[in-house]
Design goal:
465 residues, 37% helix, alpha+beta
């Protein structure tokens, strides 16, 4: 029986695409290639290789320790997260169609890779590595499409903050502009960076469409055209890589931390979601109400609401994520409800053909969030879940009037418990992915709980007598 790795290498046309990349390498003078994948936290990992060896790595892949999928971090007890030091090595094989020359260094290119278990493994040799979040999203999406005939298209709103650097080169907690939302003059202060980000983004395959200055100091949102989930996840990863490079060029720090400031808005990363059958948007209204999603779209919303507690663990994945929810007055999506253009609920219908999932921030690993959304929507469609009527009031006013609405988890610890209790949502992290994710995030939560912070000292140092 052919292994997953053999099937991957035997894809029709793959050898032709490998040859096309060789021609591009030679024509453009590329001398080095990053063979990269994405870790459990969304970091870009991998190896660099001379371009002279492109064919070798395209056919045979590279080897790296399994623990690289967890950033090769150790937990608070000194144990490697996910995999021990005795674990064998993964094989990373290029997805040839993702080859791109870096516009800021034309001698260097990057290509995303799919991860496999080693051929010599005792269990599932040369099988897909289930702690590969990027590969998992592709496979979960394929399963969803086979079952429903639909595919997921996503557009993201990647808010982030451009911060000043200290004299020693470390990032400060000071934005490069004032916190004036939609203010063109503040937007203009960042225009040199914006031009560079758009230039690099376009060269890397992002169809840049719009942008604005957001509420916080130095806070910028630049958008590109929505697409299939796996393509949008790759582009968000690429966008972050671009911003890091532009920061180096302009002596600025691109901050994707959800909540670096108290008292101003945080960095969200809203996901605008639609389900498509071929080129037909299946979320569009099919009744008399031009605002009401189709019956299928409503069941998808019902699935997201049903699994929102566990889904929050994937879309608000850090301790700091929950600062965004606790700092009042900034439209944080605390409540498991939905409405039309209602920014006080976790989901809103932002246009007739899509809904916006709001309980997601800038630290999100998009491969996990989109896998989670596929699983939740698939369950809603399968069980024909009714999300209930849309809430058109400010949710706080609705609650004051007697409506009972549950809050989403308000700490990472609560979200982790919700994920462990949700068997359906755990299928978005198949095999070893759940083990790696939970180990990493449980350790993060425990390290936070064990830490003495500046707030502790200020609050309790002189607590008695």
């Amino acid at each position: 029986m052919q292994s997953d790795l053999d099937t991957f290498l035997a894809q029709p046309g793959r050898d032709d695409r490998i040859a096309e990349v060789r021609r591009e390498i030679d024509e453009r003078g590329v001398s080095y290639i990053y063979l990269q994948f994405v870790s459990v936290t969304g970091r870009i990992m991998g190896k660099g290789v001379p371009a002279a060896h492109w064919e070798r790595f395209a056919h045979d892949g590279f080897q790296l320790v399994y623990g690289a999928t967890a950033n090769l971090f150790i937990d608070r007890h000194g144990d490697y997260i996910g995999y021990g030091p005795e674990a064998r090595e993964l094989v990373g094989v290029p997805d040839v169609e993702t080859f791109r020359v870096l516009p800021w260094d034309p001698r260097t290119a990057r290509v995303f890779c799919t991860l496999f278990r080693g051929r010599e493994e005792d269990v599932d040799p040369a099988a897909y590595l289930t702690s590969d979040c990027r590969g998992n999203l592709k496979r979960i999406h394929q399963d969803f499409e086979r079952e429903t005939g639909l595919h997921l298209r996503v557009g993201t709103e990647p808010e982030m903050m451009w911060l000043k650097l200290n004299p020693d080169g470390t990032p400060s907690v000071e934005g490069k502009t004032k916190p004036y939302c939609y203010h063109i003059d503040q937007f203009s202060e960042l225009q040199p960076l914006i031009h560079r980000v758009i230039s690099y983004g376009t060269a890397m395959g992002l169809d840049m469409i719009q942008g604005d200055h957001e509420d916080a100091p130095g806070q910028l949102e630049l958008n590109w055209q929505f697409d299939r989930a796996e393509h949008t996840a790759d582009r968000l990863t690429t966008y972050r890589q671009i911003c890091k490079q532009v920061g180096r060029e302009f002596n600025a720090f691109p901050c994707f931390m959800p909540k670096p400031f108290t008292g101003v808005s945080a960095n969200g990363c809203h996901h605008n979601i639609s389900l498509w059958e071929g080129e037909t948007n299946a979320f569009l209204p099919d009744g008399d109400n031009p605002r009401m999603p189709s019956k299928l779209g409503l069941t998808a919303i019902g699935g997201v609401l049903a699994h929102l507690d566990a889904l929050t663990c994937l879309t608000a994945p850090t301790v700091n994520s929950y600062r965004r929810l606790w700092d009042t007055g900034f439209w944080a999506p605390l409540f498991a409800d939905w409405g039309f253009q209602n920014r006080t609920t976790a989901l809103r219908v932002s246009a007739p053909g899509r809904f916006e999932y709001r309980s997601v921030d800038s630290s999100v690993n998009p491969y996990l969030s989109m896998a989670g959304l596929l699983v939740a929507m698939g369950d809603g469609i399968r069980r024909n879940l009714d999300p209930g009527p849309p809430e058109e009031r400010n949710i706080y006013e609705a609650i004051s009037a007697g409506k009972e609405v549950r809050r989403i988890p308000m700490t990472l610890g609560d979200a982790l418990a919700a994920l462990r209790d949700d068997e359906v949502m755990r299928t978005a992290l198949p095999g070893e992915m759940f083990t790696v994710f939970e180990h990493y995030k449980r350790d993060e939560w425990e390290r936070f709980c064990a830490a003495v912070t500046d707030w502790d000292v200020k609050e309790y140092l002189d607590v008695l007598p």
